Amino acid sequence: MLTEAERERYARHLILPDIGEEGQLKLKRGSVLIIGAGGLGSPVSMYLAAAGVGRIGLADFDKVDITNLHRQILYGTSQVGQPKLAAAVERLHDINPEIAIETHETAITSENALELLSKYDVIVDGTDNFPTRYLVNDACVLTGKPNVYGSIFRFDGQASVFYAREGPCYRCLYPEPPPPNLVPSCAEGGVLGVLPGVIGTIQATEAIKLLTGIGEPLIGRLLLFDALRMEFRRLKLKKDPNCAVCGENPSVTQLIDYEGFCSPAEVGEIVPAQLSTMNDPLLIDVREPYEFKQGHLEGAWLIPLGQLERHMDAIPRDRDLVLYCHMGQRSAHALEMLRAAGFRRAKHLKGGYAAWLKERRSGAASR
Prior knowledge:
By secondary structure, the chain is of the alpha/beta class. The chain is built from 15 helices and 13 strands. The strands form 2 sheets. The protein has an 8-stranded mixed beta sheet, with helices on both faces. The mean pLDDT is about 90.
């Protein structure tokens, strides 16, 4: 039940037919994790606190910087140099002392994401980098949580709700991250100070709708905002049946190395002479069994190309991989499959087993 003090605080919500006391109780019992207490996290956290969301989690490990203040309205000049979470808790409890604020002063990683996200009803992505964005998406899919997405750059913003149970996820829209040098950060490219206020308020609205069950969330729709033209556009999104994480046959069934996934891929092929310089790579032979019996690299694991997809779960992601076939064509295709599934440490042997044999024979002849 709502207390008399809460009835007074949320009086303007209670008279809304779509919210009323039942909706306000849903907010009170609800929980939201906001990942990133920066430009987007500031308006999101302030409006959710004011709305009466009973438990708000904040994940950030940064300190307040003077360059934050033109857009991160959660902080003031007197808090420059302080940890963001300490400053945020003080401000949010001033807005609403009746709610619980939980702080997670740590980076979101593959090791802690699933446990952390599972404790909340709704996840709000306020991040500003691709590795964390893909990590949050995949963790939301694996834990069945709705992902309230927002991004900002210069004068443009985007917002959506990626919820794999009811629509597409972030990877359905962006299967692969762009080359890192193609998209500069806000620190490099700048951002209009009011822009995160617009997009963050939209994210807060979507979180409230998800918790209360009112309206139509931005599931399957991408909202685009152009501040210079003061124009909103809306794009329809469809679930990708071939999506690596939420598709019909997902290849990403656990969290991966997202720094590797979003960093520039190294040259994907090596020559036979480089094999001896690698630190204990796992060799994977993608030929057929009869070819393998005729000769193979010592210690190689036989996974024919046609069976590679259903064996991906057994392939380690934290180890260097070298794929090979007879001449290099099949292993090049296998490399594309593994890279698409997030195996950033995979390479293939240029020229294949035939090139390795040739290198070995020429080396023996020269001795």
